[in-house]
């Protein structure tokens, strides 16, 4: 027993001594976590240089755009061919992707050797060999019935300007075929296929093997957004935000970037980590000074690096009693596969001895231990360096996502990663240590490059089909100039019909007289009470007008909610609630015993026969209180005040919110003769010549007309531009068949139109992976504010995705792009329709006055106009194009409804005083 212990102690001591000896010799290859963090920071800086247009030229990490815009979403299907060229062998694959809910991929492949004379010969011979191999494969598998999409995995640095084009920057991995560098390799392949003949293929995508790895894993693992190869060569790719890639136009969405990290350090940034052994490897390589990171990491050089170290240690008498064999002196005799065998957990030392004996060496037990440790240090340094660069990529993705922690998947491939028994475990461990805030899952790619090329092709095909189907769906919302001119002309016709006595009852634009005969002239003064009812909130205000040199308006107000049960209850309940709010406000202001002139802003269609008399035509905006339509709302308010019997009010005027908006802006700008509301609802009023208003007696002067243009189209005159989505929204509304124009352009309905489109696209598997969630089924989930936020130019797609996820819609980046496009299309049409209607109004005023050119101001209010990032600009541009002889200025109203009601009351009192 003692002998066994002594032997064990001796062997442990021997092992320890040998390890220390190797550690001292290779101290420069042992990297601490601090050094790795330093390398990672340097790599991040190189990534930034590569992404920037200014510094890309001199950057060693080229960050090449791949024009792969999306990872697989599982809906890909079809038959594809793939070519995989990147090493000593060449593979042709047939990949069948089925969409049957099982996400099944079937592959059939053949491997063809590439003779050394082809690798080092003419480029045309190389591509002819590839084309002939492809033809052989297609004939053997009877693939020529129809044109088959093909993806080409080409594992060398290329600059791509589109997915099916790539200019070779430089050969690597000992390839030297002449006449290819600087040329488009896809074009070379197509020419070779044509020369060979007999093949019906369509080359759709050029793919780097690293991209193929990411896409292959991405089909099975939705979170996969990084691909890494550690094999003969090494490289990484990842999904970068498009807005950060200066070399590509556009800033919507993401694109896979091929880092080409093998060249990291070519500019000297890694010189303090490069050892004399690395320099010897580099000097003897086919591309000295190039691909320095790759030469420290990849399988092509790892075995040779170990051979050089062993030879140097032997020459120093540290191994094999100083006796080197001819084999040990011969380049390439010690291979990377030997390292994998030597580092096997139990058989390592036995394998070491056999390999060394095959190299004509006579190793002792000490030598075997030392050689095994040399292999460990070299391969561990490779894993460390790879981990440092990968940590930089993961950190960048986390920052792009603006997250404290990142959960993602890295697709892995390459012979070193696949075959080395310790490599994956070491790499994973170091990555997790360097970036503890990134929870990383590593997935080994199955047939990565070939399957990946097919997946890139499948995704490209899917995106083309999806884009076509989405464009087709949205085409009905994209109005031509001729269609907008038609809307303008039909609006003008309906306005004329609304003004005439004989056609007024059948006109869809009601042109209601307001009995407001003039705009403010600046002499208005006094204290007024104002009520403002137009949505789910009700406001009570005191407005103090002051004239003279220091003209001013001061307001005091309180906002009260109108509960849904009151909005849709009885008329008596609604007006009792309004009076209760007034009572509370008068108490709050200490004005219970004061009888002020009152203006009532009532933002619903009313037929007025006087300034203080208005019969409700119909409810809008979700109101449905019974026993109100057809009745005078001023009388109903007076009756409710009597029932309360606490105070008395002098109701001077009933006011539409649009008229209030016009009056507010006119107080500051005398040219303001039009009011526009573009918010929850939509409406316009304007000063019309009395002679044109046949429904009111008198021909002298002007009167403000409330167009109530929201009803435009109720007679079917704009049915040709109403989409099926407009009809669906109408059918689900409280007032089916009514307010058709408003339902195409106001804030209350735009979100619903968007929701209907999203449901349609999701049902057709074009969005949200075909999964209709409960939130998506919920009417009203898309409010105008969400459309405004989603369309903001300042908002990155990541934030758009966050908004959608907040709404319970689990979206991908691609989904976010589609949703943003849908929102933009719907809101653009809304602004254009509003502009077409406004063009009809301003042109009518110009013709009323017999002017060649009209200069006029529009007072505007409403959340859509105020908050949407593009609505106002599109509206103005449409008016400019459709009414070229009118110079229209839009002025935003401040507190339009309340202040406007007070001003109308003041103007009415002044008129009474004058008569």
From TrEMBL:
Coiled-coil stretches: 474-501
UniProt keyword list: Acetylation, Allosteric enzyme, ATP-binding, Coiled coil, Cytoplasm, Glycolysis, Kinase, Membrane, Mitochondrion, Mitochondrion outer membrane, Nucleotide-binding, Repeat, Transferase
Residue intervals of the Hexokinase N-terminal domain: 22-219, 470-667
GO-annotated cellular components: cytosol; mitochondrial outer membrane
Family, similarity comment: Belongs to the hexokinase family.
The keyword Cell membrane appears for this protein: no
Enzyme class, UniProt record, top EC level: transferase
EC numbers: 2.7.1.1
Residue span, Hexokinase C-terminal domain: 226-459, 673-907
Function comment: Catalyzes the phosphorylation of hexose, such as D-glucose and D-fructose, to hexose 6-phosphate (D-glucose 6-phosphate and D-fructose 6-phosphate, respectively). Mediates the initial step of glycolysis by catalyzing phosphorylation of D-glucose to D-glucose 6-phosphate. Plays a key role in maintaining the integrity of the outer mitochondrial membrane by preventing the release of apoptogenic molecules from the intermembrane space and subsequent apoptosis.
Protein known as: Hexokinase-2
One Pfam family named in its UniProt record: Hexokinase_2
Species whose genome carries this gene: Anguilla anguilla (European freshwater eel)
Subcellular location: Cytoplasm, Cytosol; Mitochondrion outer membrane
């Amino acid at each position: 027993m003692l002998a066994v212990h002594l032997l064990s102690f001796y062997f442990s001591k021997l092992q320890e001594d040998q390890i220390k000896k190797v550690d001292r010799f290779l101290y420069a290859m042992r990297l601490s976590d601090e050094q790795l963090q330093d390398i990672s920071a340097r790599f991040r800086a190189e990534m930034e240089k590569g992404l920037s247009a200014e510094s890309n030229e001199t950057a060693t990490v080229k960050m090449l755009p791949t024009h792969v815009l999306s990872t697989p979403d599982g809906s890909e299907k079809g038959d594809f061919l793939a070519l995989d060229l990147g090493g000593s062998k060449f593979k042709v694959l047939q990949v069948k992707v089925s969409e049957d809910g099982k996400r099944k991929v079937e592959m059939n492949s053949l491997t063809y050797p590439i003779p050394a004379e082809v690798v080092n010969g003419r480029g045309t011979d190389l591509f002819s060999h590839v084309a002939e191999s492809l033809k052989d494969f297609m004939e053997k598998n009877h693939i020529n019935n129809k044109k088959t999409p093909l993806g080409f995995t080409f594992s060398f640095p290329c600059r791509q300007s589109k997915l099916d084009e790539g200019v070779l920057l430089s050969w690597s991995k000992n390839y030297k075929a002449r006449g290819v560098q600087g040329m488009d390799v896809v074009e070379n392949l197509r020419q070779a296929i044509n020369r060979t003949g007999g093949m019906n293929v369509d080359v759709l995508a050029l793919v780097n093997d690293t991209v193929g790895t990411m896409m292959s894993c991405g089909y099975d693992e939705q979170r996969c957004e990084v691909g890494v190869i550690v094999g003969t060569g090494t490289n990484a790719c990842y999904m970068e935000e498009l807005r950060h890639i200066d070399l590509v136009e556009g800033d919507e969405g993401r694109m896979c970037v091929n880092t080409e990290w093998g060249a990291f350090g070519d500019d000297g940034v890694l010189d303090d980590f490069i050892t004399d052994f690395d320099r010897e490897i580099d000097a003897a390589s086919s591309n000295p000074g190039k691909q320095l990171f790759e030469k420290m990491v990849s399988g092509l050089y790892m075995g040779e690096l170990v051979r050089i170290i062993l030879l140097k240690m032997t020459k120093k008498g540290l191994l094999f009693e100083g006796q080197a064999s001819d084999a040990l002196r011969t380049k390439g005799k010690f291979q990377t596969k030997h390292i994998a065998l030597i580092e096997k957990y139990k058989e390592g030392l036995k394998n070491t001895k056999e390999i060394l004996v095959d190299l004509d060496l006579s190793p002792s037990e000490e030598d075997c231990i030392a050689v095994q440790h040399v292999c460990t240090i070299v391969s561990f340094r490779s894993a460390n360096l790879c981990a440092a660069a990968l940590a930089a990529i993961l950190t960048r993705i986390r920052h792009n996502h603006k997250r404290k922690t990142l959960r993602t998947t890295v697709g892995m491939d390459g012979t070193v990663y696949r075959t080395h028994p310790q490599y994956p475990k070491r790499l994973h461990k170091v990555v997790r240590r360097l970036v503890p805030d990134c929870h990383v899952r590593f997935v080994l790619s199955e047939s990565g490059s070939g399957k990946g090329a097919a997946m890139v092709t499948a995704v490209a095909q899917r995106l083309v089909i999806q884009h076509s189907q989405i464009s087709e769906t949205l085409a009905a919302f994209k109005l031509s100039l001729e269609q907008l001119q038609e809307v303008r002309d039909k609006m003008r016709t309906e306005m004329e019909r609304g003004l005439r006595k004989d056609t007024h009852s059948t006109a869809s634009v009601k042109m209601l007289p307001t009995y407001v005969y003039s705009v403010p002239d600046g002499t208005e003064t006094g204290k007024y009470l104002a009520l403002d009812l137009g949505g789910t909130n009700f406001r009570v205000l005191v407005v103090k007008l002051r004239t003279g040199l220091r003209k001013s308006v001061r307001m005091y107000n309180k906002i009260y909610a109108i509960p849904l049960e009151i909005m849709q209850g009885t008329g008596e309940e609604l007006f009792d609630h309004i009076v209760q709010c007034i009572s509370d406000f008068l108490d709050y202001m200490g004005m219970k015993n004061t009888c002020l002139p009152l203006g009532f802003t009532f933002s619903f269609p009313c037929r007025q026969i006087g300034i203080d008399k208005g019969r409700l035509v119909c409810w809008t905006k979700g109101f449905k209180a019974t026993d109100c339509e057809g009745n005078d709302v001023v009388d109903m308010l007076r009756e409710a005040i009597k029932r309360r019997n606490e105070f008395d009010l002098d109701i001077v005027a009933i006011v539409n919110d649009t008229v209030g908006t016009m009056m507010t802006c006119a107080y500051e700008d005398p040219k303001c003769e039009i009011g526009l509301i573009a918010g929850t609802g939509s409406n316009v009023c304007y000063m019309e010549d009395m002679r044109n208003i046949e429904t009111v007696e008198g021909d002298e002067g002007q009167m403000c007309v409330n167009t109530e243009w929201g009803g435009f189209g109720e007679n079917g005159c704009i049915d040709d531009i109403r989409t099926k989505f407009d009809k669906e929204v109408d059918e689900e509304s409280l007032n089916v068949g009514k307010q058709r124009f408003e339902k195409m352009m106001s804030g209350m309905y735009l979100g619903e139109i968007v929701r209907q489109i999203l449901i349609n696209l999701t049902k057709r598997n074009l969005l949200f992976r075909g999964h209709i969630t409960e939130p998506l089924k919920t009417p009203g989930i898309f409010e105008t504010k969400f459309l405004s936020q989603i369309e903001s130019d300042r908002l990155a797609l990541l934030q758009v995705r966050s908004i959608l996820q907040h709404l319970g819609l689990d979206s991908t980046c691609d989904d976010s792009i589609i949703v943003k496009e849908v929102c933009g299309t719907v809101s653009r049409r809304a602004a254009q329709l509003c502009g077409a209607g406004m063009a009809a109004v301003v042109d009518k005023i110009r013709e009323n006055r017999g002017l060649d050119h009209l200069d006029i101001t529009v007072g505007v209010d409403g959340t859509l106009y105020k908050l949407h990032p593009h609505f106002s600009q599109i509206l103005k541009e449409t008016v400019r194009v459709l009414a070229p002889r009118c110079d229209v200025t839009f002025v935003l109203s401040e507190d339009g409804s309340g202040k406007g009601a007070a001003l109308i009351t003041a103007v009415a009192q002044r008129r009474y005083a004058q008569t």
